[in-house]
Amino acid sequence: MRRRTVSSGTAWESKVGYSRAVRAGNIIHVAGTTATDENGDPIDGGPYEQTEQALATIASMLEAVGAGIEDVTRTRLFVTNIDDWEAIGRAHEAVFGDVRPAASMVEVDRLIDPALCVEIEADAVVDA
């Protein structure tokens, strides 16, 4: 089975030793993705904007390995304040409303940077 990895270019990937996305055969895993700019710094914005940015990065990584949003089968959302679920959910629905992947949203104590309020993982399956 052919294995392909891609990076979004942030420093975290090389510091921690992981890929932003891995495609093995027809299975794709996108690592926990937050709302950061090209330098890896958190973007300004609330829960909706951070979710929107994280999902845009995920879409870009999927495209880099030959997939798209329509191929996503599961998302996992880690949020620092579950009371933000509606804003985060609206941003998720704007991207996945027609795809409707299996999804989980879990409150966590904190993320790697205190300015971040959401981190998202995604799994996808493409035709072999």
From TrEMBL:
InterPro entries: RutC-like_sf, YjgF/YER057c/UK114
Record-given protein name: RidA family protein
CDD domains per the UniProt record, alphabetical: YjgF_YER057c_UK114_like_6
A UniProt-annotated Pfam family: Ribonuc_L-PSP
